[in-house]
Every structure is written in C-alpha cells, then in structure tokens.
Design brief:
Blueprint: H1 11-30, H2 34-54
C-alpha cells in the first residue's frame, strides 16, 4: 500500500471518495432481495478464488485486458 515515488497523500482522493463509493454500494446491496444478495455473494467469492488461482495466490499481477479496440 505504499504510494509511488513522488505521490503526495490526498485525503479526498485517497479516503473520502472511496469511502463514499463503498457506502453507496453498501446501500444498493442492502436494498437487493435476499436471493440476489446470495447469488451476488457467491459470484464475488468465485471471482476472488479464480483470481487467486490465476495470480498464484496474489503473488503475480493479473493479466490486463486491452479494450482499445485495435
């Protein structure tokens, strides 16, 4: 979690905006039906397991997808 060289900490960009985004997602999640929460939770866990396997336990960078269209 170390910032790159020359990066200065900015409370708004580093804490407040991600915090507001988390709260927004949590409110949306809370308003989903129970079935949607269960299916979404399972989908999230499967994605984490898939990424853990492909990155060999999160020791390698995941492959980036090029969406530039060329």
């Amino acid at each position: 979690f170390r910032p790159p060289a020359g990066h200065r900490r900015n409370a708004v960009a580093d804490v407040i905006i991600p915090g507001l985004a988390f709260i927004f997602c949590a409110v949306l999640w809370y308003q989903l039906s129970r079935l949607a929460q269960i299916v979404g939770g399972i989908w999230c866990v499967v994605g984490i397991i898939y990424t853990a396997i492909n990155t060999r336990g999160f020791t390698r960078q995941p492959k980036m997808i090029d969406l530039s269209g060329s």
